[in-house]
Amino acid sequence: MAAGLGTRMKSDKAKVLHEIAGRPMIAWAIEAARGAGAGRIVAILGHQLDTVKAALDGRYGAGTIEVALQAEQKGTGHAVASALPALEDEPDDRIVVILSGDAPLLRSERIAELTDACAANPSGLALLSTVPDRPMPYGRLVRDASGTLQRIVEWPDATPEERAIPDTNAGFYAVRLGHLRADLSTLRADNAKGELYLTDLVARAAARGGATAIDAPFEEVSGINDRVDLAAVDAAARRRIHEELMRAGVTFAAPGNTYVDADIPIGRDAWIGPGVVLRGKTAIGERARIDAGCVLTDVAVAPDVHLKPYTVASESVIGPRCEVGPFTHLRPKTQLDEDARVGNFVETKKAHVMAGAKASHLSYLGDVSIGAKANIGAGTITCNYDGFGKHHTTIEAGAFIGSDSQLVAPVTVGRDAYVGSGTTVTKDVPRGALALSRVKQVNVEGWADRYREAQSRRKKDDH
Ligand code: UD1
Ligand code: CA
Question: Which of 1, 69, 76, 188 for mutating ligand 1's site (highest number of atoms within 8 Å of CB)?
Answer without folding.
Answer: 76
